[in-house]
Amino acid sequence: MLTLPNNQFVMMRKYFLWGLCTLLTNFVSAQPTQDFEMEVLIQCPAVEDQQYSPTCWSFGSNSFLESELLRMKKPKVNLSEMYFAYHAYILKTKQFLATQGSSFFTGGGQFHDILHLLKIYGAMPESAYQGKAIFTGHYHSPLDTLMKHYAENLLHNNKKELNSHDEDFLKSILNTFLSVPPKNFIYENQNYTPQSFSRDVLGINPDDYIEITSLKSEKYYEKIILKDKYNWTKDYYYNVPLQDFSEICLYALQKGYSVLWDGDSVEPTFQAENGLAFLPDSVQVNEQNRQIYIDNKSTQIEHIMHIVGVAKEKEKESGKKRKMKTKNAKHWFYVKNSWGEISSFKGFIYMSEDYFKMKTIAIALHKDALPTDIRKKLKIK
Known about the structure:
Blueprint (H helix, E strand, L loop, with lengths): L7 H14 L14 E6 L14 H16 L9 H18 L12 H11 L19 H16 L7 H15 L6 E3 L2 E3 L1 H9 L6 E5 L8 E4 L10 E4 L2 H13 L4 E5 L6 E2 L4 E2 L9 H9 L7 E11 L18 E5 L11 E5 H7 E7 L5 H6 L4
Parallel strand pairs: 4-6, 9-12
Antiparallel strand pairs: 1-10, 2-3, 4-13, 5-6, 7-10, 7-13, 8-9, 10-11, 11-12
Helix pairs in contact: 3-5, 3-6, 5-6
């Protein structure tokens, strides 16, 4: 998914649709103050920059897994985002042919893509694979265009699966733009394959992680296939009421688990350059309005980020709280972005709980991070 902040066309669409949903009320409210006091902070690696690539899914997911390793008292590891991006393209091409072009084909993805890739291809550290060849940075527009044309050409020639020649040519394109992933590499003076590195160094069980959404249009406390173009694998998500959705995130963070965020970043009040994401006063936060925004596409998946903390409004010297310009902002989630160290918050964003409720499509987390009562309702062992 392309998550660059300068997408003016999409921004104009967002203004129009949300304006209709709020009955043409004054959309842009005053910016909230920037005085926050951290209540919970989960250890995480430094902010990185996805640059001109649609790989927020890999950057956000890797950051989440790197924090999981720290939570499990394992050594700090910087995982290679481009290793996953490389192999995701192979799986996407196979799925595109298997579905005769009905699956969405871009460089974007979801957290569960990482889980599938871990099982098949393993993982490797950034030191072993940077995924850069032609360009010194992550500039993927030519690669994305060429890969899409190649997949469509295969489909035009009635291919339903890749043969060895097709796959070799596919890899030659990826090798040209991203370089060749090594079959073996040295890490901490030990020789590893991607599979042995995943098993012996990471030790992450993909089956321990779940994805959760909140859709009023679907039955609650059931597994559903999220109908989103980036869910090209047709994976299942647990569906919960909106109140549970927010409670799960807060509970997990308070218990020391970070959360992966998947939602809408193309909004006038999503201000990465100011380190803020909030809602205007005119927006009514409830399940019905949330579903309306999802149905009319004014809320949709645009970006993936990593939630690593909870903050509250800082108190004045008098002991009274400052009056925030957004209503009901009881909690602010502290979110790690992947657009580099922009803003005075060095690439992190304070997201109001209301913004979370209305503009988040899904979250991912360890199943042990769920509140006990919700876990029982979802029948998760």
